[in-house]
């Protein structure tokens, strides 16, 4: 592995993914983590205890001066903002991060979020991914004035297995579209955090789009695994064909009810 980066900022460090990324970064002995959050009381003791190598910065994600203070002296910035907040925040807050990178001479920016293959989509194709598409194009096409051109890193790791189980699997039933045998790419929060940290400390790691997955599976296989591990039966609830799923997506997009009507 190449020489480790010295200072790495994690924006959204108190979130589930941000916390894990910061924890893995601290496993590399010469790495200093700048954790940025608006809720310092949520920083776990496991991070704040390392006063020599974990530096906490508090402020608003949408105020450039606050963000610049956190990024000062960093070579790399990792965005771990929660995509469940709202689309406008995900776009506006990331633009502020990128502007701060430009102003502070930060050379690499890890964009959020880390799931789905959104670079091939256009805004409106899948509303939940619109912020990522906009940020992808913003970095690619932006006319920045800094002396160091910030290089984007887009880690695409399939779907969070934890989110997949939350949306589609309840206590005694599982909803699915298609046959249930369609292959999905999955990664856990833990493995995405570990992979992100390893890429971040490697100054010679490639930039741009980096595809990664923890494992592949399908609905039927996951159901069988849960039934075996938990020793309980799960009822599979057929929602319709893949073509019908596409139709439901289009209807939900028009009605503004994508999350409510399609995912659950």
Describe this structure in words.
- The protein has helices at residues 16-25, 45-48, 64-71, 87-104, 130-141, 161-168, 189-201, 219-230, 242-255, 258-263, and strands at 7-11, 32-37, 54-58, 76-79, 108-110, 151-156, 159-160, 173-176, 184-187, 208-211, 215-217, 235-238.
- The protein is built from 10 helices and 12 strands.
- It is globular, with a radius of gyration of 20 Å.
- The longest helix has 18 residues, at 87-104.
- Strand 2 (32-37), helix 2 and strand 3 form a beta-alpha-beta unit.
- Helix 1 packs across helix 7 (189-201) and helix 4 (87-104) packs parallel to helix 5.
- By secondary structure, it is an alpha/beta fold.
- The chain has a single domain, classed as Rossmann fold (3-Layer(aba) Sandwich).
- The chain is 40% helix and 19% strand.
- Keywords: NADP, Oxidoreductase.
- Residues 12-121 form the NAD(P)-binding domain.
- Belongs to the NmrA-type oxidoreductase family. Isoflavone reductase subfamily.
- It holds the Pfam family NAD_binding_10.
Class in CATH? Alpha Beta
User: Gyration radius, to the nearest Å?
Assistant: 20 Å
Rough shape? globular
Report strand %. 15-25%
The total count of helices amounts to 10
Order of adjacent strands in the largest pleated sheet: 3-2-1-4-5-6-10
Alpha-carbon distance between the two ends? 43 Å
Order of helices and strands: EHEHEHEHEHEEHEEHEEHEHH
Helicity, in percent?
Answer: 25-40%
- The CATH topology corresponds to Rossmann fold
Let me know the CATH homologous superfamily: NAD(P)-binding Rossmann-like Domain
Q: Number of DSSP strands?
A: 12
The CATH architecture term is: 3-Layer(aba) Sandwich
Summarize the biggest pleated sheet.
7 strands, parallel
Structural class given helices, strands, pairing? alpha/beta
